[in-house]
Amino acid sequence: MRAQPFIIIPWENDFLAGLARLVLSETDGNPAHACIIVPHSRPRRYFADTLYAMPELPKPFALPQMITVSELFATLRSEIENNPPEQIEMLDRVGLLLRCLENQAQEQREALPLPTGDTNRFFPWGVRLANLLEDFYNQNIEPEDVTYMEGQVVDFAAGLLGSLGRIHREYTEKLDNRSWTTPGYDAFRVLRHIKEQRGTYTADSFACLRGKRIFIAGFYGLTGVEEAIFRHLAEEYEAQVVLHSDARLAESPSRVHWACREHTRWLSRWSVQATCAEEPEARKRETVFHEGFDLHSQLDVLERTLGASDGQPRITDADSLPATIGSAVVLPDTGLLMPVLHHLPRKDVNISMGYPLGRSTLFRLLETVMRLQETASGKGHGASLYHWKEVIGLLRHPYLKMLALGEERPLGVPLHHMEASVRTGRRFTDPRTLHPELDEQSKLPEQDVRALLATVFDLAVTRWEHLHTPQDMADTLADLCTLLLTHGGDLWDRFPIDAESIFRLMHRVIPMLRECSLATQIFPKDVLFTILRETIRQERVPFEADPLTGVQVMGMLETRLLRFDNVHIVDATEDKLPGAPANDPLLPDSLRGMLGLPDSRHRELVSAYNFHRLLQGAEQITIYYQAGVERSGLFEEKRARSRFVEELLWQEEKKRGKLITPGTPPLHAISYPMPAITRLDKPVERTPEIAARLSEYLRRPLSPSALDTYLTCPVRFFHERLCGVGAIDEVNEGDDHAGIGELLHSVLEDFYTPYLKRTVHFDEDDAKRLQDLFSLRLNQSELKDSLPFDSFLMLEAAGRKRLASFIDNQPETHIAALEQRFQAEIAVDGRTRLIAGRMDRVDEREGQTVILDYKTGKVSRPNPGIWEDDTLWSRLRCWQGEDDDTLALLAQKLPSVQLPAYLYIYPRGVRQGAPLPVGDAGWVELRSNGKEVLLLGTSTEDDMRETVINEQIPLLMEFLFRHMETVPSYRPNRGRHCDWCPCANCCSV
Ligand code: SF4
């Protein structure tokens, strides 16, 4: 029997309403006599509501049977075979393929480059191979070996393709022998059975279809099996094919919209005609485009647009069935779900889409736990040590902080303390060895809180150290889920998406791992993690819209067969609509067509049909997309609007006869007013409280570095020294400048100690001794563990070179003191203040004392003419507490007062009195050639030297103390130093 002409419901019309009218007319008003085969399950509920809203259908009524195509295949197979086979999951499929390949490798004389013995390498290939075989089943193709693929794909893939036919046959045989099946194999078996029994089946052979009027409704790009079975149903069961397509398909197929091309081909392959069930509804369609610069800008406009229209369903004049009419926010990428939900103005939102489990917060926890193990290093006391950043990732996970004991959530405080301790610790650490302080406010017994903390680390760290099999992993995951559920409190009621994710993990992933054929096989840990990631990657957390009110949020595929008045398509960019071809190293897209499999061109056609079909039925279309450059790691990726959007714009331009530029309706460019950011200085008024705090602070001796801080910026001095604001302590992952400085100081102290109170002049042997001492101390230091290996090697080489150059530049000298602290008093306006500093080395040379400071950082040289700058010195002398720029002027000319301070302290601080007068002070530049940079130098006349040391430097010290204790307010002093300031956010508004 020939198939009947296809019925077309014009794609401007509501498909489900048209189908409902058709079903009623073909079943004499009793829809229960119909069996409707649809591509997916979402329209079921919409169709029931559509029937209910039909006035001509008497109530109550029985619903028709509406089944998806995959349900149909499974049902038919269970009818055909007495013992329906068990459907297996991906892990079993990969396990089965591994067996097949092991047999193949044994049988073949020439060994294939198959890593069957290396499960780590095989698993990802196994997943791809299982999916490829599934494609062949769905297309009703029994593949042959594909030879000579070397050079087109990698060697292993060429090996697999070279045995493809044999693998397929053996895999199929093994499925049959074990009474196992897959969704694709179900379809394949049903078709094979029907073909074998052709002629013996009658219209009543399948109980599920018996006595029913069959409708094959809303399909577009068919798989090979679907087409063959639908044809059988059309020819033997008089099944009626109903398309939602361009109405011109009935009269002039050559003029149909290009996106309906698959329908034209279908008609031609079956040699049937099409008739239109109803006239296309005339719609006034308005399309608006919003070009944003990122996702946030798109969502902002979406929120405002939905807020303005309120997202209320409207009833059109042309159609009195409201069931599928309303507003839909369509997301081409499921990852957009969370940000979109945060921007919807109304709370009565219905989500119809599968959210990837791999994007859930739960998976983030599992990923952190796996990353901990993958980046673990070294062995400490029999247990692994973990990288500090991964440990912090675990400590900060919201699920752990929210674990409850009774009414309390007691882990927040201890986890916070642990984080602080990890941040200031070493690169690799063990969180289980920390003993954090607990929350003092907590009323819970300490042992209960510590027991909960221990359980958390047992399930998130210890148990993952000892995984061997998928079953071990399933047990650990199950216990972790139990902990989260038992101690989650009301967490799961408040966050339903998280609750769905945990449900999915417990009811799909864990049983899969525990019951698969590889469950007890021992794998290395990284293979187990690959298995878990791959299994989770395939899982979707399903959301069904129920009840069907409010704004519908759905994926592009979920919109099939449905119609909405208002359609909002978010992030309609080329990489999502139609999307880039999947990169499959086993069978690249270019080779798929050669083997009879659908390729990216087919996928693009399907995507185009879904897009245009949705738009044809809508009245108000708003399309949001991102245009511009997005930085993504190493590469810069250009985001371009989808070619489908481009087509719509082109149509609009043709209509207007001119190009549409962004900013011209209907193409809106999203922009925001960008006022210049004005930052006003925020001085700190020296209130009585602050003055009191300063007095207290000045009871202790002030160091030259504190004086430097004040000179550089009084506001920083206030925040850093008086209030204790500082940089966040963190594990140093790069070059540890402070650690290197400390090491060099201690090496030089040790080197010079034998020469204390002696006159020395060093030679090459001394340089070698100093270098060896440095290498020895460096290798014994913590820097060896904390620095990256390459930095460590560089440091050793550079340090040795600079120390040799340092020795080379040292004059003959007498060592008077090493690393000694001196303290002096200073009288300021009737008050006595203290100033103290630790001097790295004090030498005696040519009848004078020279104070030296080792500098591994930058040296701040004073302005050359500062000592002769009479204006400056007279301003310092006359300053009486004015709020002027004297301090800033001084800072400009003398960026550091460290050496002047040493010259002030030393002669006043030596207990027995300085044996020789101080003549100079200088820095030893260890970061370059180790030369001495003296404050005054040999060019300064003796008179001048005396004036500087005995008059100007005491004046300078007095001025600084007077300034900090007298000035009415501390003003920020901006400069390059702000780049390293830990209080950068405290000095402006
Ligand atoms: S950022 Fe600059 S101006 Fe602000 S407190 Fe720090 S050093 Fe002072």
UniProtKB/TrEMBL annotation:
Gene3D superfamilies in the record:
3.90.320.10
PD-(D/E)XK endonuclease-like domain residues: 702-987
Protein name as catalogued? PD-(D/E)XK endonuclease-like domain-containing protein
